[in-house]
Amino acid sequence: MELTTIGIDIGKNVFHLVGMGPRGRLVMQRKLTRAQLPLATANIPACLIGLEACPGAHHLARSLEAQGHRVRLLPPQYVRPYVKANKNDFRDAEAIAEAVGRGTMRFVPVKTTAQLDLQALHRVRTRLVAERTALINQTRAFLLEQGFPLRPGRLVLKRELPTMLADETLSLSGLMRALLQRLFSQWLHLDTEIDAVTRELNGVAKKDPACRRLLEVPGVGTLVATAVVAAIGSGRAFAKGRDFAAWLGLVPRQHSTGGKPRLLGISKRGNRYLRRLFVLGAQSVCRSARRDRHRFGDWLARLQTRVHRNVAIVALANKLARITWAVLAHGDAYRPAPVTTT
Predict the structure, then answer these.
(1) Into how many domains does the chain fold?
(2) Tens-digit pLDDT profile for residues 208-227
(3) pTM for the full predicted model
(4) Residues 179 and 268 occupy one common structural domain
(5) 3-state secondary structure labels for all residues of the chain
């Protein structure tokens, strides 16, 4: 039995393996537990192994690479077209084995432990911010039902709520006053947790050379720099900056036929969290007067006279993403092009 390609359908406790020979014929089907999998792959000659990029895939990929195998992670949406009718776990593994051998297939780089740690910090911070937002909205709704509308803004509510709770003349029942006090205490606790995670990210950004270079790019702060490093590492999985921007979904969708190109709105594919950070960074650059120091300052000023503000922001986010990739992939410091004066 000569194996050239193996597809593994990952499960929580059970894994399904399908092996293919040199001509793409099915030569192996096995169902293994998590404990049995390392022993089985260690006894198989080095070959190409395909996995879907999902939780646990990066750790498994590093373990298989340590055994001498070539491991490729595939986006699940690229595997789906190869799944035949009557989907089951073995069919999924077979589809992975077929897709991983395609010469035009795109793969997900295997993340290191440091990248996964950074990714975990970002996900925890995102969850905490979402919980804080939900808590603030609930507090504001309770106050509105009691006849106390407040001006929009998180800081406004945080400043005025303690004063309102301390004011005994307000027509708040004892139950509602105690409930609002409890919500405010939870809010302060979430602020403490968010600040702690943010300090962790700041510490990583100061120590990591790649993050320090990225921090010099306009619109790129600690969150963007660490999120980029966590997502793409060195950036060499992309051949050019446009590929990175396309992966972020910051390029127009295309629906062309008959040789007639038709461009639509941005595709919004790829990493939604990272795309949102780049858009927020572009918004901060648009509001900053320091953008005039960079060559794209004049380009942005001309663009804003021709298109809607949001279109200009997305276009700038695309440009910042390309600059970020260049700084990361080439290993050079950001050098702003001087503004030419006539």
Answers:
(1) 3
(2) 999 999 999 988 999 999 99
(3) 0.86
(4) no
(5) CCCCEEEEECCCCEEEEEEECCCCCEEEEEEEECCHHHHHHHCCCCCEEEEECCCCHHHHHHHHHHCCCEEEEECHHHHHHHCCCCCCHHHHHHHHHHHHCCCCCCCECCCCHHHHHHHHHHHHHHHHHHHHHHHHHHHHHHHHHCCCCCCCCHHHHHHHHHHHHHCCCCCCCHHHHHHHHHHHHHHHHHHHHHHHHHHHHHHHHHHCHHHHHHCCCCCCCHHHHHHHHHHHCCCCCCCCHHHHHHHCCCCEEECCECCECCEEEECCCCCHHHHHHHHHHHHHHHHCHHHHHCCHHHHHHHHHHHCCHHHHHHHHHHHHHHHHHHHHHHCCCCCCCCCCCC
